[in-house]
Every structure is written in C-alpha cells, then in structure tokens.
Design brief:
The protein is an alpha/beta fold. The chain contains 14 helices and 14 strands. The longest helix has about 30 residues, at about 385-415. The model is unreliable at about 105-125, about 250-255 and about 340-345 (pLDDT under 50).
Length: about 475
Amino acid sequence: MRAFGYFRDAAPGGHSLAQQNKAFLDYCGREGLEPADTFVEAGPANGLAPGFRQLVASLRASITADVVVVVPAVGVLGASPRDAVFRYLQLEALGARVAAIDAGAPAGDDQIITWLREEDGTSLGARVRAAMRRKAVKGEVLGRPPYGYKVGSRRRLELIPEEAVVVRYIFRLYLHERMGIRLIARRLNEEGLKTRRGGNWSMVSIRDILRNRAYLGTYSRFGVRVPGSHPPLVSADDFGLVQDRLNARRTSFAPRVASQYLLSGLAECGYCGNKLIGVSRKQSWKRRDGKPMSNAYRYYQCESRTNQSVCGYHTRRAADLEEQVRTALAEEIRSAGGLPEADVRDDGRAEQARDIQRLRARARAIERRLDGYVAAVTKGRLARERLRELALAAAVDRLAVDDALDAAERRLEVHASAAERRSERALGVAHVLDAWQELPFAELQAGLRDAVARITVTDDCVRVSLRP
C-alpha cells in the first residue's frame, strides 16, 4: 500500500520539515507502507493551498485504489476545523484514507477529524467514524473499488469479468510461472491489456494487486475486516505463498530516502514520450590490495522501461544530461532571440475577476450548507447516519469549486502585464544559467521550470522547448 505525506512548514508543535519527513518515513516503516511522495504547504493551510492541490492531482492520477495520506496531525489539513473536515472528506472521496501520526492509532484505523461538539458532548468525528465502521462491518464499499471489482447492489463488491481474468492471470504468472513483477508488467503491456484508466501496467500497479487482500473475498476498511463479503479471485493458500515470495525478495527494511533530480517532471523520452525518472545505483568492489570500495551513480532512465518493461532504458548520467540541458537551454534562448512572449490579451480580465467572486461565493454557500447539516443533527431534524453522506457530497462539491477557482485564478494570472512577466522571467533565467553550479537545488529547479516547458531526450540529442 502506498503512502503520501502531507506536511506544513508551520506544523503543530513547531516540528521542522525534516522532522516531519523523518516521522513520515518512520511511520511508513512501522505500518508496512511504501512511501510514494510528499507534499508541503509553505504557509498557512488556507485558500487553495497549492500543496494540497498537488496532493489531489496525484491522487487523481494514482492507478491504485489503496492509498494512505499520512499527516503529522489532523490540524495540518486546514486552517480551521471546518477546512480540515472538508479536506479530510475530499481525500476520502478520492479513494484515500487519512492517518495522523500523532493519533497513536493501530494500523488501518483512520483518524477522523474532531470538529463541532454537540450538546451531548459527542464530536462529529466520532459520529463519522462510527457511521463508517457500521458501513464497513456490513461490507459496504467506501471509496474506489479495487481492480477486478465494481460497486454493485447493496454497495457490495461485484466482479468485473474482464478485469477478474487479468487479476487471476497476474497471480498465476507470479506464483506458478515464477515471473517477476517487472516481467509481468511487460507481458501485460505486450499483450495489449490495459489498466482501468486505459494506461500501461507498471511495477507499482502489479505489486499493489499482489498485496491486496480484497482478492481473498475479504473487505478491509477503517480497521474492520469482513471475510466472505464478496467473490474471491484467489485462494488463501495461493495468496499466502505470494506474500511469502514478495517478503522474501525484500532484503532491506530501512526507510527509503528519495533523491532529488533536477529534471524530474521536465525530461521525457524522445522515443515513447514518457517521463525520464531519476535512478540511483550503488556499486561495491575491491581494489587489488583488498580494500573495499563503493560509489553511488545517478542516472535518468525512461520510466516506460523501468516500470512497464516497454521502450528502452535510454540511460543518461544525471550530471552529464543536466549539463547538456544547460547548454541546450542557453542555445535555444540565443537562437530564439530571448524567451517567447505569451499570447495574452487584456480583454476579459473583468469578467474573469467576476467569475472568481462568484466561485468564492459558491464555496461560502457550501460551507454554510455543511453548517446547516450539523445544526439539523443537533436539533434532531437530521439523522446522524445521514449527516456523513450529506457532508461527503458537500465536500465533493467544494472540491469541484476549488478546481474551477484554481483554473480561474490561473487564467487571470496569465492576463498580468506580459511585458513585466517577460522581463522578470528573462532576468530569472539569465541568473539560473550564470549561477547554475552555485544555486540551491530548489531555486535552480524553480528557475528551470519557469523557462522550460519540456525537455526531449534521445540517445544522441537533447531538445529544449521554451515555456511561452
């Protein structure tokens, strides 16, 4: 199961980002989670919260149904209890569950955000948790169903025959034909089998399926396990053997420390169009005098080959490729006579500003709607079981409004003074090129992304496309 970390630079307790990251990795190690990525909120957790928006985008792009969002404390999610509730429910609507490190809860037990207390002293969080547990005990599906299943009648998991065949195929290839995860992904991709989203299979998606206990016919959610809640796709004996083999291949249980790569998200393979990813390799050897030696090497490789066993590795040393990009960027700017001007016009700014005001008004209306639901429960006019369903719907509506508001504000930014923006960018890129070796990593990467839209890499060529 993969885990995303979500931090804030002003976290409760005054913990630094380094301390929060260490706590996240320690938590993943204890709970058997695979650290996937981390997102940081640089400032108060109000407004649109760019770190949270990036987390939402990653969850939407995630091909696995089992994702945990790990936070240092529930208060990190929002500047106010209401914001925290909205964001918690939005994460749940996207198929993730939230785990708070400071809650001290057992593995699999979600920490529900405490919000408004009613007259009987019971918190909304406790009522939401109780409602979710009641649904889980019944085997009712909460969130996205795993590959191979759909949400059927009575909110139970039902088989999707064409996907179920693929799941059984994956288990057979791994267990009986002794194929590795990478080769299984390659086999599925070569045979034209697609994921639910229509994409290629990767090592992560294959491993998530092999680890998922849902294929035993057991529904697991919110610390509750319901055996026999839906049709199984693999026997208990076969599933156990698969886990034994997966565990035997894991030789190191130390938390993984992700390396930073300057061209991440920018460089793409010129052959298949997929991203290049950073890869670290450590080699050890002995000199003639018997002294042990070791060295770490950093590369960029085609992600299609690394995770899906298609395309080719097309490996490039990180330092060499980054220096080639620096040279190519300088040449592209020189030949183009500077950075390209964005195609912007000043008309429509007033209407866009009005759109933003309307969207903000809608967001406030949704907040009042949630307040009304809580008040109705307090006065006995709304059943507690109904509250969570309505609150979740409100959170989903708010997420759609936030999407629209984010897009509207980005459009308005485009209409800022083109000349001023172009001048600032030109100075920034010149500074990046001149101080390439001296700049801190974050500043260098930000400057590079401000100038470059795409870097296309082949075995013998690097092409830089400037951002308009």
